[in-house]
Amino acid sequence: MIALTSFLVGCGGPTGDMGTVTGTVTLDGAPLPGVMVTFTPADGERESFGVTNSSGVYKLRYTTQIMGAKKGEHQVRISPVGVEPTVPVSKKAAVVPKGDDGDSAEKATSVPKHYYGEDYLTREVQAGSNTIDLELTATPTASDS
Q: How far apart are CA 91 and CA 10, in angstroms?
């Protein structure tokens, strides 16, 4: 029992360097449901992700058992579900999965392309609880960074 306790304490994992993250994604003021939200730490460590519900609300998950994201600055991408968020938009046509109707996931979404691929927002995750709302616009603005 003592050996097991020591092992578990030694495997503390990333939870001390984490913050829980939730928020709402909107596009021109309206909730954006069914899109992938990906937070990639600036240091290149493991990313966190979540999918928005019908109200545009997301909760980030680091692993299947750990909610949240690593503390620090992150590149934030909002992409169609099923589309790799960091693949450059110009290369997406070859990798976008087709839906039942034959349309690509990108074609069926209202996520503007300036929020994924080589483009992203920058947000900071703090220790503890974070509410990070993502207010998107259909037309890129200077503040989209």
A: 43
CA distances in angstroms from 131 to 60, 79, 118, listed in the order given: 11, 19, 25
Q: What is the number of alpha carbons within 13 Å of residue 103 lying toward its C-beta? A: 7
d(CA 136, CA 145): 11
Exposure b/e, 34-55, CB count within 10 A at least 16 = b: ebbbbbbbeeeeebbbbebeee
Query: Using one digit for the tens of pLDDT, what is the confidence trace for 36-82?
Result: 999 999 998 999 999 999 999 999 999 999 999 999 999 999 998 88
Single pTM value for the model:
0.76
18-27 vs 128-131, strand pairing mode: parallel
